[in-house]
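Translate sequence into structure tokens.
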Amino acid sequence: MPNSRKLSLEAESILLPMQSPNQEESKAPSLPLPTRIAFIGNYLPRQCGIATFTTDLCTAIAAEFRNAQIFAIPVNDPETVYDYPERVRLELAQEDEASYERAAEFLNFNGNDLVCLQHEYGIFGGPAGSHILLLLRKLKMPLVATLHTVLREPDSWQRAVLDEIAHLSDRLIVMSELAASLLRDVYNVPAAKIDLIPHGVPDLPFTDPNYFKDSFGTQGKSVLLTFGLLSPNKGIENVIRALPKILEQHNDVVYIVSGATHPHVRRSEGERYRESLEALASELGVSSKVIFNNRFVSSEELIEHVGAADIYITPYRHEAQIVSGTLAIALGAGKAIISTPYWHAKEILADKRGMIVPFDDPESIADATIQLLDNDAERHSMRKRAYLYSRGTTWEKTALAYMESFQHARVDRMLRPRPAFQDLLTEKASDRLPRLNTSHLANLTDDTGMLQHAIFSLPNYHEGYTTDDNARALIVTTLAENSPLSSSREHAKLSHRYLAFLWLAFNQENGRFRNFLDYNRKWLEKVGSEDSHGRALWALGTVLGNSQDAGLRGAAGRLFEAAAPAALTFTSPRAWAFSILGMQAYLDWFPGDRSIQGARNALANRLLSIYERTRSDNWRWFEKSLSYSNSRLPQALLIAGWNSGNEQMMQAGCDSLQWLVAEQHRGDDAVFVPIGSRGFFVAGEEKARFDQQPVEACATISACALAYRLTKDQSWLEEAQCAFRWFLGENDLHVPLYDAITGGCKDGLHPDRANENQGAESTLSFLMALLDMQGIQSETTEYLSQEMSVSI
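Result follows.
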């Protein structure tokens, strides 16, 4: 059976380039680290082992990775309130199902990179803590679950809960080899999904116990210690029963029982268990030798308590304890340890790092204690073995190992994306075209023009405007004027505003458009990008070729005339393509303009030339990389070749587009996967899968729609439909990008969730794609109607 990965500083690690995260001059990581991490579990000052563990883990990760934003979501018992620290951002009510669902919404809209669940059956509401599944099913981001309990013989509810947590999690962290083997053998979890990270321990010095004894009035005495929350399964009564025999040999022994009664026990039984221990000590005549420290001990105090112990004892009564935080801390402090053979103890106390005694056997506890107190050399050797073994499990190293697991989960999600469970259940509307809704388009438009970005669906004034987006908006509103389902009056009004912006953007002195305008109407450059100029020409040509507004067409024509000559000086292939699209739209209205014909042909020949120089059998493209708006290049060749009668251009356009759409599929599936903007696709290298952008789907739809119109080849229509369904939820994450309520489109797909901002580029890309699809649908219906008339 394969072993799970054991993560530690000594192991080969994908974190190696980042082992000094606190150094100012450390190099940027080659793989993405999560920076916003939410921990779900309990948190101090709630009194329980999970709360202590989660608090220590968060503190350690925050100390090692200062750029990380760490926050916690603890669970509150019914009718309890805790004075949590600032790191706690949201609280779960244990039995309130709605609070779990609201927490999932909170995590999703706050843009968290990863969630780490601290799982223990008893802390969450519902049968076997099943309420936590309500939260996990809705999460969009990677999930890493730390399993504090893994049962060999779970009941049906326990099995169902852990099975689903394992399915929903990207990685599972356990703290012992036995837990890993149970996950593999009992729960059928693949070994590759399991990370073994031992329980973290404070980085304590190896000290003489006498250094701390004066704090407890135990100078000159031999101290036995058990600490942690008290409950009947701890077996402390067996140590008290062992004391008379121990005291016969070592009368200086004191037994310290440090810790409050577990809150759950106290709620149901009060202090009955502690009182029974006190009564037992009195009955056996050892009350003066037992010190009950009846309170929850802080981390700082715990160091002193453990430090003062000569022997640490965990007399637990049941085998099925997969991890003990108190045992791990005692090991890390270099204590001589006596323990019953519960699972965790058998594993970490092997190789003479401690002594194992039978369950419920005071006689054996007494014999082991006497043996260690009689033999200083044996006791100190055991201490040293324990201390050295624990050096790889200090909280500093545990933090690094956890971050490695988090990084692994994030990279896996990028390479093998999967939808959130809830999104799989959401009905997709991918079999029909939505109605044209330009509400969000108007929402992003003010008296100046269209704002480029949004915060969710709210206009982001801080980022200002661009010529790029106002040109796209002008294309959309101009084409929407002719849509039978649109408000032509409203769209004409918007068209005037966007065209006025292009006039404002044009610099008469150099014949070029500026691109970026801040919200205070100050241009941030003298000359914009070639691509923005090309898009502006495309928009102006679209007005001239499609608008019924004579005044709008006149203003567009004047500006087109002034801006067109600059296109021949451009070096960007995409700027050539955008300019060609604009010039051809212009020529649809003024087909006899020989100057624009010549400019269109010159730019198209440049595209054809670089395609023929660069293409190969395995790389049928214009450049040695695929980046953004890729389909616009073959689209420009197709439209120029068709209108100039150039078969070579037509063939190059079809070949390159066919190759591109094949590269934009998920294996053999009919699912559109555009080239990701996080690295793009360089020849001979890995193709970037994310972030997937709406502008790529829009460009593919436009190019395939054109190819279908020109060739009547049904496969192009199918490709356009496939790319359009990407907007509606047929994508890697099964998440709709189009928001039918606002009329906006989300800004793309990350590896784990959609970018919820509905900016100008994404919204305009969807609207442009929808107009293309409505046009195809209308033309196809008309064509079929004509065919039927002829046949009749």
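Note: The chain has a mean pLDDT of 90.
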